[in-house]
Amino acid sequence: MLRHIGQEGSVMIDDADRQHLQRCVDLAAQALASGNEPFGSVLVSSQGHVLFEDHNRIGGGGHTQHPEFAIARWAADKMGVQECAKATVYTSCEHSRMCAAAHG
Ligand SMILES: [Zn+2]
Question: pLDDT, tens digit, for every residue of 9-49?
């Protein structure tokens, strides 16, 4: 599910959304502290369970090591199509075009 928060016609966020978004910000801070760019992302199941999380890891030289891309790889390996469709990705910033394509 791709929800754009904060745009006209968007859904309201609740406390669970805020908790997951705060985790993304914390992961982004971890990324920055470890020499990476400040981005973090969390994958949450339709039941509200955190399935996978990661932060940016391009500091090691791998320019595709974005957390949203890691989520797409993990989900493709571990989840069925229907489960993916019901899950939510929270991220500290709008996806890059590479990650948006991977999620598609
Ligand atoms: Zn990206």
Answer: 667 889 999 999 999 999 999 999 999 999 999 999 999 99
d(CA 9, CA 42): 24
The answer to pTM > 0.90 is: no
Q: What is the whole-number distance in angstroms between the Cα of residue 18 and the centre of ligand 1?
A: 21
Q: 55: closest CA among 82, 74, 22, 32?
A: 32
| Ligand 1 center from residue 11 Cα (angstroms) | 23
Which CATH number goes with the domain that contains 97?
3.40.140.10
In a domain, 8, yes or no: no
- Spell 75-101 as b/e; 16+ CB within 10 A means b: beeebeeeebeebbbbbbbebeeebee
